[in-house]
């Protein structure tokens, strides 16, 4: 496997995914009852945007750097909350170029009654992850295949679970289908699992039929959030960022309809892109199918 997330850390797609993730974590915490956070593809947990691995922050310029340098305070609380979390990491380790990955954001947010497990398959990334999360007792790091481990922890004793699936997509078609298989088997084990899966928008010919297959396969409420900063079929590489949400919590759609356009406006300086929120499976469709 050649993929290293440090090359892309803090880019617009990371920011899109991480704003949504933190918003989900906050919603899960509206209830006092604890929940389990699972991160199947954890990465290194923390990145140095000034370093050579991050190409000295080239991709982050259209992502976290644009967001942190914005002159005006964002209106949406989700964006401000996320900016606060990034600032907290930077202050904590005294490094203005540090960037938090998904496991750090979650570990930073978990309460005493919550716990988390994150899996990373590459030994070097996993060692970095262990260092990044050293101070967090509620988040367990395992150097293992996240998909293989899912079945060992679900259903969890908490009966409430937030699952992030964020593969590297070195082989996009196969990995998209593999992720959906894992979503379906996780739902069989714990039907109310809240799942967020990231997918790349590179080529409409891959994304559109895949979303249609997802729609047919799922019997749980699901929506997609998409944010793109280049025309969706351009050949730049990554045109946009997609998030598939299964069992999205109450009002997550309404809040996303506020923060996503604002985030898009902050990141898409060239004004070549757009954003969209689409229900793929509505709760009423599921109830109807089960009736
Ligand atoms: C896109 S990155 C993860 C980024 C991270 N979720 C974040 O938002 O900060 C994908 C990571 O998954 C790891 N990986 C690939 N296949 C895996 C598997 N089957 N189980 C666990 N980790 C895997 C890769 O080594 C890479 O570090």
Question: Can you tell me about this structure?
Answer:
- The longest helix is centred in the middle third of the chain and has 18 residues, at 172-189.
- The N and C termini lie far apart (45 Å).
- Strand 6, helix 7 (172-189) and strand 7 (194-201) form a beta-alpha-beta unit.
- It is built from 10 helices and 10 strands.
- The model has no long low-confidence stretch (mean pLDDT 94).
- The protein has one domain: Rossmann fold (3-Layer(aba) Sandwich), CATH 3.40.50.150.
- The strands form 2 sheets. Strands 5-4-1-6-7-9-8-10 form an 8-stranded mixed β-sheet, with helices on both faces. It has a two-stranded antiparallel ribbon with strand order 2-3.
- It is of the alpha/beta class and 291 residues long.
- The structure holds S-adenosylmethionine.
- S-adenosylmethionine is lined by residues 3, 5, 17, 40-43, 101-102, 119-122, 125, 145-147, 166, 168.
| Order of SSEs | HEEHHEHEHEHEHEHEEHEH
List ligands, each type once.
S-adenosylmethionine
- Report, as a whole number of angstroms, the end-to-end distance: 45 Å
Q: Tell the overall outline.
A: globular
Q: Structural class per helix/strand content?
A: alpha/beta
Mean pLDDT: 94
According to DSSP, the number of beta strands is 10
The level-1 CATH class: Alpha Beta
How many helices? The count is: 10
Please state how the strands of the largest beta sheet are arranged side by side.
5-4-1-6-7-9-8-10
CATH superfamily: Vaccinia Virus protein VP39
The major β-sheet equals: 8 strands, mixed
Q: What percentage of residues falls in helices of 4 or more residues? A: 40-55%
Give the number of domains.
1
Based on the structure given, which CATH architecture is correct? 3-Layer(aba) Sandwich
């Amino acid at each position: 496997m050649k993929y290293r997330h440090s090359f892309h850390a803090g880019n617009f797609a990371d920011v899109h995914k991480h704003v949504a993730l933190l918003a989900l974590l906050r919603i899960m915490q509206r209830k006092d009852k604890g929940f389990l956070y699972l991160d199947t593809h954890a990465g290194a947990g923390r990145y140095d945007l000034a370093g050579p691995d991050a190409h000295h922050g080239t991709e982050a310029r259209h992502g976290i750097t644009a967001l942190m340098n914005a002159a005006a305070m964002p209106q949406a609380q989700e964006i401000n909350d996320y900016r606060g979390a990034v600032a907290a990491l930077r202050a904590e380790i005294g490094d203005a170029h540090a960037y938090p990955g998904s496991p750090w954001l979650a570990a930073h947010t978990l309460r005493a009654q919550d716990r988390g497990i994150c899996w990373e398959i590459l030994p070097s990334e996993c060692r970095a992850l262990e260092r990044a999360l050293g101070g967090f007792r509620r988040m367990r790091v395992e150097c293992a295949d996240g998909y293989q481990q899912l079945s060992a922890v679900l259903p969890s004793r908490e009966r409430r679970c937030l699952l992030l699936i964020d593969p590297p997509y070195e082989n996009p078609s196969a990995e998209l289908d593999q992720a959906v298989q894992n979503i379906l088997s996780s739902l069989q084990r714990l039907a109310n699992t809240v799942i967020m899966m990231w997918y790349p928008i590179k080529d409409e010919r891959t994304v559109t039929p895949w979303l249609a297959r997802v729609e047919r396969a799922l019997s749980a409420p699901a929506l997609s959030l998409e944010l793109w900063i280049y025309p969706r079929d351009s050949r730049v590489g990554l045109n946009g960022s997609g998030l598939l949400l299964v069992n999205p919590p109450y009002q997550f759609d309404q809040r996303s309809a506020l923060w996503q356009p604002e985030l898009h406006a902050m990141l898409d300086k060239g004004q070549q892109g757009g954003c969209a929120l689409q229900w793929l499976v509505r709760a009423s469709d599921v109830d109807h199918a089960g009736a």
